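Researcher: I'm preparing a figure for a lab meeting and need a structural model of a single chain. I don't have an experimental structure, so a prediction will have to do for now. The sequence is pasted below. Please return the structure as tokens so I can convert it later.
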Amino acid sequence: MARKAFSEYSIIDFIKKMFPQTGNILPDYDDAWGCVLNRKHLVFAGDMLVETTDIPPFMTIRQMGFKSFTVSVSDIASKGLAPTYYYLILGLPRGFGWGRFKKLVEGWRDAVSFYGGTLMGGDTNESSCVTISVIVLSLSNKLPIPRSGGKLGDIVAVTGTFGETYVGFRLMRSLDRLPGFLRKRVLRKICRPVARLREGIALNGVAAACTDSSDGLAVSLYNLIHGTGKGILVERLPVAEGLEEASRILRAPFSQMVFYGGEEFELVTVIPKEKWGTAVKRVEHAGGSLIPIGRIIKRKGVWYRREDGRTVRVLRRGWEHLK
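Model: Understood. Here is the structure written out token by token.
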């Protein structure tokens, strides 16, 4: 038997086998972990931002600070909860300096002011490059939304369009090839992404399942149906406007841009048909939007019905560290 490749997903699978979870009010190894504490639900999630693998050359230190909180808040947002506390773990290279550090702190302050919550502590150490881990804790009366679930016919929806991050990461060192209006959108999407926190909170109580698109839409859709024995049919491609020139430059169809980008930080959710109208109104009242892209089906896997009427399988492929 061939040995499994050493990569992010294979490492996660190995850890799951070695450390079975207990006491989680969410499905095992969801986007977050939760328990009941003094009649409240304590839910926490965390993520890491590493300078050498996650930070493009055109991102500022202040933007790096803001994004380090966004990547973790996005997981809590997908649970339909708000951040209450943050725990910050920081690694800095020797000689980083006060000037750059103050810019980093400005980004953190921007994020805490924008998302809410309180920084409760952390740890600082020396590392070969800037490494930031943010643990987000939410203490709430509300139950968190699980990552997978839904019944046949339920609506699959997203909180925004896709494609810009795919373009940005593929053309990272030659963004000047893009039209000016698109270049600005790509830079904003990559350098100053915003977690859909208000939308996630609005979905709590109506969504059957929810996750975020940090690893790409294709992976997110597979996460929605993991362990359910069901599938998803995508009937509407949530493609961002104005990507025609980028598609020509990259020789990539819109479907590839949409499914295999990553770091869009949009929410990808399952809404029961009977609650769709309520969900749309709630999200719009929160200042966001909800775009229906497909539905839960009996056939396992994720499928896309193209404009020519042909249905093709969407591969479970996305960003994966160490691979």
